[in-house]
User: Which sequence fits this backbone?
């Protein structure tokens, strides 16, 4: 995994600037261009394959599904066919089943689905594909490997930077932590941005807040080996909490649920930071634990791509979500609002403005 991951990151570093040039314009419009049944969109069939996290992950699979469903409703198209994958071995067969059912556009979710998506797209050049969270650039030449695939990707390091600064500023123990599902770029980008935000807080305030679970120099850290909410994820969270952590960022869909169990078992105040969606809204059962969430506009980006495709205007140019185009961001502090000092909130807004205007550069494989 480490060798593969290094090769992947190397390739992504090559594509960053080229992709950003294509994708850093305005964020996808949430209302899109409505074709409706009268435009012929009623014959259009959008489809989707989840990764192993499933559509009820309260995270990126769920957001992608919401985007597809909203687009179908706006278009007046056929009801989307949406297939859940239980394991990586399901990806190819699930994609083929959608091809066989006459899908016009197929949305795939996640880095791990990219090889199967490429194989399917290459075999079916007349179909359209939307890849959430991966550029599908297996040869690392800076271009998506098939002209009928549109990548929707997110420079979440920018938003994670803000969350890291916030975490450091609210920590009472001086130790914050993070862990992920797999050490792949779309996971580690959160962890690395988070650590950079903590470093900035330390520099600004002469502090020494420590990050447990991610080593920026080694580009490695604590990982569960998958994206399931299971006892391995709980134990991984527990091992980090045991190091006096009082703010914890789990990155990997449902694994936050296992982290929440470990937090409650700890019997002391520990804040969670969610990812992808505003987890306070998608999963109220953990709302009291959430300091904030690092957001991706997956639902909006997916809806925009499907609406365009349904209206006959499929565009394969990558969309890259940033703070500037509001493709990424951080959620409201909700129940933790009264525990975040006003001056810290103001500082977070200042940092956001500086990232947008280029005064601050957050390192990531997507940074231009």
Assistant:
């Amino acid at each position: 995994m480490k060798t593969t991951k290094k090769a992947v990151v190397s390739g992504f570093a090559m594509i960053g600037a080229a992709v950003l040039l294509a994708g850093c314009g305005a964020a996808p419009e949430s209302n899109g261009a409505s074709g409706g049944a009268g435009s012929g969109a009623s014959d259009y069939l959008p489809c989707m394959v989840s990764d192993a996290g499933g559509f009820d992950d309260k995270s990126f699979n769920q957001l992608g599904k919401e985007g597809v469903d909203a687009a179908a409703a706006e278009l007046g198209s056929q009801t989307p066919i949406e297939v859940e994958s239980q394991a990586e071995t399901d990806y190819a067969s699930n994609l083929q089943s959608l091809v066989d059912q006459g899908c016009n556009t197929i949305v795939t979710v996640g880095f791990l689905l990219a090889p199967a998506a490429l194989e399917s797209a290459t075999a079916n050049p007349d179909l359209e594909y939307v890849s959430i969270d991966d550029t599908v650039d297996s040869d690392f030449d800076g271009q998506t490997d098939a002209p009928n695939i549109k990548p929707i990707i997110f420079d979440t390091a920018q938003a994670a930077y803000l969350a890291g600064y916030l975490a450091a500023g609210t920590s009472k123990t001086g130790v914050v932590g993070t862990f992920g599902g797999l050490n792949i770029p779309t996971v580690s980008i959160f962890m690395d941005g988070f650590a950079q935000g903590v470093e900035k807080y330390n520099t600004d305030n002469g502090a020494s807040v420590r990050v447990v679970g991610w080593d920026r120099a080694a580009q490695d850290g604590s990982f569960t080996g998958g994206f399931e909410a299971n006892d391995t994820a709980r134990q991984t969270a527990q091992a980090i909490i045991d190091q006096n952590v009082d703010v914890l960022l789990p990155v990997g869909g449902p694994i936050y649920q296992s982290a929440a169990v470990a937090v409650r078992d700890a019997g002391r105040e520990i804040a969670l930071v969610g990812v992808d969606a505003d987890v306070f809204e998608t999963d109220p059962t953990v709302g009291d634990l959430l300091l904030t969430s690092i957001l991706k506009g997956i639902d909006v980006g997916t809806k925009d791509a499907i609406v365009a495709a349904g209206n006959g205007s499929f565009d394969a140019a990558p969309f890259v979500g940033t703070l500037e185009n509001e493709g990424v961001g951080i959620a409201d502090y909700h129940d933790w609002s009264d525990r975040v000092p006003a001056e810290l909130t103001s500082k977070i807004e200042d940092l956001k403005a500086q990232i947008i205007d280029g005064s601050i550069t957050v390192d990531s494989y997507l940074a231009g």
Notes: The chain has two domains: 2-155+298-321, 157-297+326-357. The two ends are 26 Å apart (CA to CA). The first strand starts at residue 46 and ends at 49.
